[in-house]
Amino acid sequence: xxxxxxxxxxxxxxxxxxxxxxxxxxxxxxxxxxxxxxxxxxxxxxxxxxxxxxxxxxxxxxxxxxxxxxxxxxxxxxxxxxxxxxxxxxxxxxxxxxxxxxxxxxxxxxxxxxxxxxxxxxxxxxxxxxxxxxxxxxxxxxxxxxxxxxxxxxxxxxxxxxxxxxxxxxxxxxxxxxxxxxxxxxxxxxxxxxxxxxxxxxxxxxxxxxxxxxxxxxxxxxxxxxxxxxxxxxxxxxxxxxxxxxxxxxxxxxxxxx
Length: 258
Prior knowledge:
With 258 residues, this protein is an alpha+beta fold. It has 2 domains: 7-125, 2,3-Dihydroxybiphenyl 1,2-Dioxygenase, domain 1 (Roll), CATH 3.10.180; 142-255, 2,3-Dihydroxybiphenyl 1,2-Dioxygenase, domain 1. The protein is built from 5 helices and 16 strands. Strand 15 and strand 16 (250-255) form a beta hairpin. Helix 1 (18-29) runs antiparallel to helix 5. It holds the Pfam family Glyoxalase.
């Protein structure tokens, strides 16, 4: 059965060096990224220790780099109709980066941006299968999607209009404002916050679950990445780190509490 409209369904790392990305993330998250691409495009699937798919790693080509693309994590939001969703994105004040295209056997997709310029994909998969790439407590899965935005209320209005997201609760964070939770139906998929200034550029950040957060933090440092925050406990008892990989790409890791 297909995921409800507005659900995160796939995660993708764009990188100039997929081999280095494999060496790093396989060790940090306990993934198995394909050692070699399938087909002409250098695209490698990301598998959990349990053999389920989380997303893919795409090599940035020279053309992409010359066109302004850079390394980063992105997600695909599942929708009922890609073309109708792209129109809704534009109506709600967003824009189109790559207009809809179809890959046989995979589905139809487009790359868009919200009114604050933050990019993501929309997709309708060709098979009517349920994606488990996002799972609140699944090991190797994305457990949390976090948006840091310069216009939190504007972002809420946009994502509600396009995807039907709701914002059922909030947690005050003092001078940083509120941490506002995001839901698709009855499932909380993440939260939004006001992007700190100074701080990393606004954008989506994804937290993937590893078996041991302390080990993940040490592995990040040992493999050439940087731990910017944590390990620290978060509400609910889990512990997290915020880190960057050797290319400087930001990501999060979540693990069980002590």
